[in-house]
């Protein structure tokens, strides 16, 4: 009997209800059975739905059924005829499974030992092949190609197929997981577009991101279509996922978007082998039933593919439902064990649970019982499920396919807990696997070199290869395949940046507002503006972007079917199927996924789009750093805007909103170019350069993302100086204001919102202490560091060619005196450049958790305010003997530096 904790998996709809007339009940049941017998399951389904609908109208209490019996969703009589040659497909599927396993096995030579996963593809091969032979459309299909998110650990299967298709060589297969040592023939372990850019489209092995990104890719396909940019009506998104992966919060957390947007262009295929990496997914429960209820409750169409065709006759004979009852009550841990044992074990422990079910298999041999396949390994059942998915309208579909991890690899592999970590085959395993697949490889070939088992290719003129290639020709070309030639697009005119370079006049404006004004002007650019994709996670008004609502509008495929409460306002909330703004709600993970879909449209759709994702700074790289890493792998392009940046700028919000470290997190991503601009004119040059860098035609790496930290503290934005150092802005540092007095020399380096503090410190040093200090605006500590490290590496590898001076050292050449560097981030950020400048160097930073307080109080507490800069400069000059040694102490007393209430740096105001 099942444990009480599994009551939810029983087919007990009538439990706890009294049958007042058993004879009448039996008559109803017999009538229903006759309906199925004479008119089929489709008619029976309609009658049942009609009865349920009427019952609801009459207030008859009928429970919501989110979980159905543990059987296939599609009845046998509704299965379509399989259109392919199943025998020939089975033959080359055997070749694929052999080559995939041998590739991983060969990579386990003792002198290499780079690992790999043998069992994952063995279990998913049928799910892949039915799609590749009959459903997945290639990039040359008239309707455009499908986007397929492959299971990361099954990558050997994709390589094995590409080998049979003639796209990869044996030498490349032997370069698996040896990307540098076997270059140019190395292959990455998993789907990594950046490392194999002509092949992979989507990185999926950071589990949970694949499902999320697939949902937003499907949404973006519809977005492009509804906005009239590209006809994507004939394209589908497929995502292959593991049942263990579905425990990741990202895997399930965004299902509602797909349902709300009615994304019937999206199909999830969950490979339910009932195992995760180290054991069963739900040993005491049933993951398929759990997922069915979850997806159905989220508004998805659910198709279960649990049993192969060999079970059909048994289920047909199961007149009293005993077999279905046992299927319902058997927990996953037992189902896993059955496939690790034998046919006799299954007879005794599964069918033997009831005399009636044991009788069902009385005339079957143990071998025949063992050959009762799970649904994920049956071409006919999988084809029926996929066909139902693509024909279903109005909902996304999930196919829950039950299979076996390590299917066909032998008793050492099939369904074992350790299967995921097993990477090599014994000689006995190889022979058993060869025999099972009927691969024409001799014992002598296997025995001569355990790790030299040969790949098998029947020849390009064999019927199997001809059939395989013909199927792909009819479907529009190879999958996966990535085409990344970027079409040329007109970039914005100089007029788009003029207003930002004029400054704010007498008005005060934060850099967030300065950026939004630039964005507004870019949206007005006739040819370019339509390519911008503003992405906001429910903070548009905070960032001053509500002005976009009436014109750009918020994307909603369902339109706006309600009366907006602010409809009388000029900046009323406005939704539209043609809306340009992707407004994900309180959802940074979804916003990052939307950014990735938009930022890779140049490759996925041949349509360069420019995502501009603006968010609360703290909730970007801290919360969704893995998503940005995947975006970098996928070679996304676009702008990431960390608004309300800094540890002391968003003072009212407190610890979890006070960002003092995001640039440091972003610095670990090689594809992210970070800037911390102080003024609108700096932003204008950075945005202009970013668009040219990512979307221009220059001979440079376009696969980067520009990350700008901008602030909500209003300041007077200066106009761009006539002789502004544009190169310095773009490379990371320029002289903003040289000292106007003579005296002991110091250098003040600041970024972002800290630049006005440095200017104030410059004035105080001159007026109160006679010190001559230059102020430098550091627009990018990170880019300066990268340039410095590159210079060091060049010198390291080319010792005879002289030494290249890092850009920051070039800029500071002749700038004498100690350096005091400050930002509104932790001191680790300015410290990034310390090793590249000869001057004595001090970093001031907000090195602790944030808290709620005034800006002036917070800056005084962290000792990053103007007066702290003054005191630090005085201390360094006193140590050098250039000023009186008593000056620092006098300054501390004069400015009450130890009193947090005495701080004056900054001002109030700005949305939080």
UniProtKB/TrEMBL annotation:
- Supply the Gene3D superfamilies for this chain: 3.40.50.920, 3.40.50.970
Region feature (Disordered): 1-24
**Top enzyme class:** oxidoreductase
Q: Which domain of life is it from?
A: Bacteria
State its Enzyme Commission number(s). Answer: 1.2.4.1
A molecular function GO annotation: pyruvate dehydrogenase (acetyl-transferring) activity
Which InterPro entries does the record associate with it? PDC_E1_N, PDH/Transketolase, PDH_E1, PDH_E1_M, THDP-binding, Transketo_C/PFOR_II, Transketolase-like_C_2, Transketolase_N
Which cofactors go with this protein?
A: thiamine diphosphate; Mg(2+)
Mark out the compositionally biased spans (Polar residues): 1-17
Q: Which residues bind Mg(2+)?
A: 243, 273, 275
Task performed by this protein: Component of the pyruvate dehydrogenase (PDH) complex, that catalyzes the overall conversion of pyruvate to acetyl-CoA and CO(2).
**Protein name as annotated:** Pyruvate dehydrogenase E1 component
Source taxonomy: Bacteria, Bacillati, Actinomycetota, Actinomycetes, Micrococcales
